[in-house]
Fold this sequence. Notes:
Shape: globular
Structural class: alpha/beta
GO cellular component, one term: transmembrane transporter complex
Keywords: ATP-binding, Nucleotide-binding, Transport
Helix content: 25-40%
Distance between the termini: 27 Å
Bound molecules: adenosine-5'-diphosphate, magnesium ion
Oligomer: single chain
GO molecular function, one term: ATP hydrolysis activity
Protein name: ABC transporter ATP-binding protein
Number of helices: 9
Organism: Aquirhabdus parva
Amino acid sequence: RSIIDPRLNSDVKHHPEKLVAIQVEHVTQIVKTEAGLLTVLNDISFQICQGEQVAITGRSGSGKSTLLGLLAGLDTAASGKIRIFDEPLQDLNEDQRARIRLDYIGFVFQSFQLLPHLSALENVALPLTLARRIPAKQAREFAGNMLDRVGLSARKLQHPRVLSGGEQQRVAIARALVHEPKIIFADEPTGNLDGQTANDIEDLLFELNREQGTTLVVVTHDLTLARRCNRQLHLVAGYLDADEQPHNIPSLASVLDERVGLGS
Ligand code: ADP
Ligand code: MG
Protein backbone atom coordinates (compact mmCIF):
# COMPACT_ATOMS: atom_id res chain seq x y z
CA ARG A 1 0.00 0.00 0.00
CA SER A 2 1.40 3.33 -1.02
CA ILE A 3 2.21 5.71 1.78
CA ILE A 4 1.48 8.66 -0.49
CA ASP A 5 -2.19 9.54 -0.57
CA PRO A 6 -3.39 9.29 -4.20
CA ARG A 7 -5.42 12.48 -3.77
CA LEU A 8 -2.28 14.34 -2.92
CA ASN A 9 -1.59 17.16 -5.29
CA SER A 10 1.69 17.18 -7.16
CA ASP A 11 2.82 20.28 -5.33
CA VAL A 12 3.56 18.29 -2.19
CA LYS A 13 5.08 15.31 -3.98
CA HIS A 14 7.62 17.48 -5.71
CA HIS A 15 8.37 19.66 -2.73
CA PRO A 16 8.31 17.42 0.31
CA GLU A 17 10.34 20.02 2.20
CA LYS A 18 7.17 22.12 2.41
CA LEU A 19 5.95 19.78 5.10
CA VAL A 20 8.42 21.28 7.57
CA ALA A 21 6.38 23.42 9.94
CA ILE A 22 9.08 24.53 12.35
CA GLN A 23 12.81 24.73 11.77
CA VAL A 24 15.16 25.58 14.61
CA GLU A 25 18.87 26.09 13.94
CA HIS A 26 21.46 26.70 16.65
CA VAL A 27 19.16 28.73 18.85
CA THR A 28 20.62 30.22 21.99
CA GLN A 29 18.75 32.43 24.41
CA ILE A 30 20.33 34.59 27.05
CA VAL A 31 18.40 36.52 29.70
CA LYS A 32 19.45 39.18 32.16
CA THR A 33 19.03 38.21 35.78
CA GLU A 34 20.05 39.95 38.99
CA ALA A 35 23.05 37.63 39.13
CA GLY A 36 24.10 38.53 35.57
CA LEU A 37 23.56 36.98 32.17
CA LEU A 38 22.05 33.51 32.11
CA THR A 39 22.11 31.19 29.11
CA VAL A 40 18.65 29.68 29.19
CA LEU A 41 18.83 27.79 25.88
CA ASN A 42 22.03 26.46 24.42
CA ASP A 43 22.56 25.76 20.71
CA ILE A 44 19.21 24.07 20.13
CA SER A 45 18.48 22.56 16.70
CA PHE A 46 15.57 20.43 15.46
CA GLN A 47 12.77 20.48 12.99
CA ILE A 48 9.10 19.59 13.29
CA CYS A 49 6.97 18.52 10.36
CA GLN A 50 3.39 19.49 9.83
CA GLY A 51 1.03 17.13 11.64
CA GLU A 52 3.54 15.91 14.25
CA GLN A 53 2.65 15.67 17.92
CA VAL A 54 5.65 16.82 19.92
CA ALA A 55 6.02 16.93 23.68
CA ILE A 56 8.67 19.24 25.12
CA THR A 57 9.69 17.84 28.48
CA GLY A 58 12.24 18.67 31.14
CA ARG A 59 12.45 19.77 34.75
CA SER A 60 11.21 23.09 35.97
CA GLY A 61 13.63 25.80 34.81
CA SER A 62 15.07 23.74 31.95
CA GLY A 63 13.92 26.28 29.35
CA LYS A 64 10.67 24.78 28.03
CA SER A 65 8.52 27.92 28.20
CA THR A 66 11.35 30.05 26.85
CA LEU A 67 11.70 27.73 23.86
CA LEU A 68 7.96 27.70 23.20
CA GLY A 69 7.81 31.49 23.36
CA LEU A 70 10.60 31.73 20.79
CA LEU A 71 8.92 29.24 18.45
CA ALA A 72 5.71 31.25 18.64
CA GLY A 73 7.53 34.50 17.93
CA LEU A 74 6.55 35.99 21.29
CA ASP A 75 10.21 36.72 21.91
CA THR A 76 13.39 36.75 19.82
CA ALA A 77 16.43 34.53 20.32
CA ALA A 78 19.86 35.93 21.16
CA SER A 79 21.24 33.93 18.24
CA GLY A 80 20.20 31.22 15.82
CA LYS A 81 17.36 30.87 13.35
CA ILE A 82 13.73 29.85 13.63
CA ARG A 83 11.51 29.40 10.62
CA ILE A 84 7.74 28.92 10.80
CA PHE A 85 6.56 27.64 7.42
CA ASP A 86 9.66 29.16 5.85
CA GLU A 87 9.14 32.55 7.49
CA PRO A 88 12.39 33.51 9.25
CA LEU A 89 11.20 34.92 12.59
CA GLN A 90 14.52 36.57 13.43
CA ASP A 91 14.31 38.68 10.26
CA LEU A 92 10.79 39.96 10.90
CA ASN A 93 9.70 42.98 12.85
CA GLU A 94 7.17 42.91 15.68
CA ASP A 95 4.18 43.51 13.39
CA GLN A 96 5.25 40.86 10.92
CA ARG A 97 5.71 38.33 13.72
CA ALA A 98 2.25 39.18 15.03
CA ARG A 99 0.89 38.49 11.56
CA ILE A 100 2.64 35.08 11.49
CA ARG A 101 1.05 34.28 14.84
CA LEU A 102 -2.40 35.24 13.63
CA ASP A 103 -1.99 33.34 10.38
CA TYR A 104 -0.39 30.12 11.58
CA ILE A 105 -0.32 29.80 15.34
CA GLY A 106 -2.64 29.08 18.25
CA PHE A 107 -1.07 29.51 21.69
CA VAL A 108 -2.49 28.01 24.87
CA PHE A 109 -0.96 29.55 27.98
CA GLN A 110 -0.78 27.76 31.30
CA SER A 111 -2.41 30.75 32.96
CA PHE A 112 -5.20 30.98 30.34
CA GLN A 113 -4.72 34.75 29.76
CA LEU A 114 -8.34 35.45 28.92
CA LEU A 115 -9.50 39.03 28.73
CA PRO A 116 -11.51 39.54 31.94
CA HIS A 117 -13.89 42.19 30.62
CA LEU A 118 -15.05 40.02 27.69
CA SER A 119 -17.44 37.05 27.73
CA ALA A 120 -16.26 33.57 26.76
CA LEU A 121 -17.83 34.10 23.34
CA GLU A 122 -16.15 37.47 22.84
CA ASN A 123 -12.77 36.08 23.92
CA VAL A 124 -13.02 33.30 21.35
CA ALA A 125 -14.32 35.59 18.58
CA LEU A 126 -11.35 37.94 18.95
CA PRO A 127 -8.81 36.08 16.77
CA LEU A 128 -11.40 35.88 14.02
CA THR A 129 -12.10 39.57 13.91
CA LEU A 130 -8.38 40.36 14.30
CA ALA A 131 -6.76 37.66 12.15
CA ARG A 132 -9.36 36.87 9.59
CA ARG A 133 -11.16 40.22 9.61
CA ILE A 134 -14.40 38.29 9.79
CA PRO A 135 -17.44 40.49 10.51
CA ALA A 136 -18.43 40.50 14.19
CA LYS A 137 -21.71 38.68 13.74
CA GLN A 138 -20.17 35.80 11.82
CA ALA A 139 -17.19 35.68 14.18
CA ARG A 140 -19.60 35.21 17.09
CA GLU A 141 -21.28 32.38 15.23
CA PHE A 142 -17.97 30.57 14.58
CA ALA A 143 -16.84 31.23 18.14
CA GLY A 144 -20.10 29.77 19.42
CA ASN A 145 -19.54 26.62 17.38
CA MET A 146 -16.03 26.29 18.77
CA LEU A 147 -17.32 26.66 22.32
CA ASP A 148 -19.86 23.91 21.58
CA ARG A 149 -16.97 21.70 20.53
CA VAL A 150 -15.11 22.18 23.80
CA GLY A 151 -18.29 21.47 25.73
CA LEU A 152 -19.11 25.00 26.85
CA SER A 153 -22.42 25.58 25.10
CA ALA A 154 -24.12 26.64 28.29
CA ARG A 155 -21.40 29.09 29.41
CA LYS A 156 -20.87 31.22 26.30
CA LEU A 157 -22.03 34.50 27.72
CA GLN A 158 -20.23 34.16 31.07
CA HIS A 159 -17.18 36.18 31.99
CA PRO A 160 -13.95 34.36 32.88
CA ARG A 161 -14.14 35.15 36.61
CA VAL A 162 -17.30 33.06 37.08
CA LEU A 163 -15.88 30.08 35.17
CA SER A 164 -13.95 27.23 36.80
CA GLY A 165 -10.29 26.63 35.94
CA GLY A 166 -11.22 23.84 33.55
CA GLU A 167 -13.83 25.98 31.85
CA GLN A 168 -11.42 28.89 31.49
CA GLN A 169 -8.85 26.57 29.97
CA ARG A 170 -11.47 25.33 27.51
CA VAL A 171 -12.22 28.91 26.51
CA ALA A 172 -8.48 29.52 26.08
CA ILE A 173 -8.21 26.44 23.89
CA ALA A 174 -11.26 27.42 21.86
CA ARG A 175 -9.66 30.83 21.33
CA ALA A 176 -6.37 29.24 20.25
CA LEU A 177 -8.13 26.97 17.77
CA VAL A 178 -10.96 29.01 16.33
CA HIS A 179 -8.94 30.48 13.46
CA GLU A 180 -7.77 26.96 12.49
CA PRO A 181 -4.07 27.49 13.09
CA LYS A 182 -1.63 25.09 11.48
CA ILE A 183 0.40 24.90 14.69
CA ILE A 184 -0.80 24.77 18.28
CA PHE A 185 1.67 25.62 21.01
CA ALA A 186 0.42 24.69 24.45
CA ASP A 187 2.41 25.44 27.62
CA GLU A 188 1.39 22.93 30.29
CA PRO A 189 -2.21 23.25 29.13
CA THR A 190 -3.53 20.85 31.72
CA GLY A 191 -1.19 21.63 34.61
CA ASN A 192 -3.87 23.43 36.61
CA LEU A 193 -6.70 21.00 35.97
CA ASP A 194 -8.10 17.92 37.70
CA GLY A 195 -7.51 14.52 36.11
CA GLN A 196 -10.77 14.13 34.20
CA THR A 197 -10.80 17.70 32.86
CA ALA A 198 -7.14 17.36 31.88
CA ASN A 199 -7.98 14.19 29.98
CA ASP A 200 -10.84 15.82 28.09
CA ILE A 201 -8.65 18.76 27.07
CA GLU A 202 -5.87 16.45 25.90
CA ASP A 203 -8.36 14.39 23.90
CA LEU A 204 -9.50 17.56 22.18
CA LEU A 205 -5.95 18.57 21.21
CA PHE A 206 -5.21 15.14 19.75
CA GLU A 207 -8.55 15.07 17.97
CA LEU A 208 -7.65 18.28 16.14
CA ASN A 209 -4.28 16.81 15.28
CA ARG A 210 -5.91 13.73 13.80
CA GLU A 211 -8.81 15.45 12.07
CA GLN A 212 -7.09 18.52 10.68
CA GLY A 213 -3.41 17.61 10.72
CA THR A 214 -2.72 20.42 13.15
CA THR A 215 0.86 20.38 14.38
CA LEU A 216 0.82 19.98 18.14
CA VAL A 217 3.72 21.19 20.30
CA VAL A 218 2.97 20.78 23.97
CA VAL A 219 5.15 21.59 26.95
CA THR A 220 4.42 19.21 29.77
CA HIS A 221 5.94 17.45 32.73
CA ASP A 222 3.07 14.98 32.66
CA LEU A 223 4.67 11.80 31.33
CA THR A 224 1.31 10.30 30.39
CA LEU A 225 0.64 13.24 28.10
CA ALA A 226 4.20 13.13 26.76
CA ARG A 227 3.80 9.45 25.89
CA ARG A 228 0.64 10.18 23.92
CA CYS A 229 2.75 12.30 21.56
CA ASN A 230 4.73 10.68 18.77
CA ARG A 231 7.89 12.54 19.65
CA GLN A 232 9.57 13.91 22.75
CA LEU A 233 12.11 16.71 22.92
CA HIS A 234 13.74 16.60 26.33
CA LEU A 235 15.55 19.64 27.73
CA VAL A 236 18.13 19.51 30.48
CA ALA A 237 19.34 22.87 31.77
CA GLY A 238 18.87 24.58 28.41
CA TYR A 239 20.35 21.78 26.33
CA LEU A 240 18.40 19.50 23.99
CA ASP A 241 19.18 16.26 25.77
CA ALA A 242 17.10 13.84 23.72
CA ASP A 243 14.97 13.89 20.61
CA GLU A 244 12.99 10.67 20.82
CA GLN A 245 11.78 9.78 17.37
CA PRO A 246 8.23 8.67 16.74
CA HIS A 247 7.29 5.25 18.09
CA ASN A 248 4.02 5.45 16.22
CA ILE A 249 3.75 7.52 13.09
CA PRO A 250 0.06 8.24 12.60
CA SER A 251 0.37 11.70 11.28
CA LEU A 252 1.48 11.48 7.69
CA ALA A 253 -2.00 10.50 6.54
CA SER A 254 -3.57 13.37 8.43
CA VAL A 255 -0.95 15.75 7.06
CA LEU A 256 -1.86 14.73 3.56
CA ASP A 257 -5.57 14.85 4.30
CA GLU A 258 -5.15 18.29 5.73
CA ARG A 259 -3.37 19.59 2.66
CA VAL A 260 -5.98 18.13 0.38
CA GLY A 261 -8.85 19.27 2.55
CA LEU A 262 -7.90 22.87 3.18
CA GLY A 263 -6.10 23.37 -0.08
CA SER A 264 -4.58 26.61 1.11
P1 ADP B 1 10.59 25.98 32.25
O1 ADP B 1 9.43 26.44 31.45
O2 ADP B 1 11.26 24.77 31.72
O3 ADP B 1 10.25 25.81 33.71
P2 ADP B 1 11.66 28.62 31.66
O4 ADP B 1 11.84 28.63 30.21
O5 ADP B 1 10.48 29.31 32.21
O6 ADP B 1 11.73 27.12 32.21
O7 ADP B 1 12.93 29.25 32.34
C1 ADP B 1 14.23 28.73 32.17
C2 ADP B 1 15.21 29.48 33.05
O8 ADP B 1 15.36 30.80 32.58
C3 ADP B 1 14.78 29.60 34.50
O9 ADP B 1 15.93 29.51 35.29
C4 ADP B 1 14.17 30.96 34.55
O10 ADP B 1 14.26 31.48 35.84
C5 ADP B 1 15.02 31.73 33.58
N1 ADP B 1 14.33 32.83 32.91
C6 ADP B 1 13.46 32.71 31.86
N2 ADP B 1 13.03 33.90 31.44
C7 ADP B 1 13.62 34.81 32.23
C8 ADP B 1 13.60 36.23 32.31
N3 ADP B 1 12.88 36.96 31.46
N4 ADP B 1 14.34 36.83 33.26
C9 ADP B 1 15.09 36.09 34.11
N5 ADP B 1 15.16 34.78 34.08
C10 ADP B 1 14.45 34.12 33.17
MG1 MG C 1 7.42 26.79 32.01
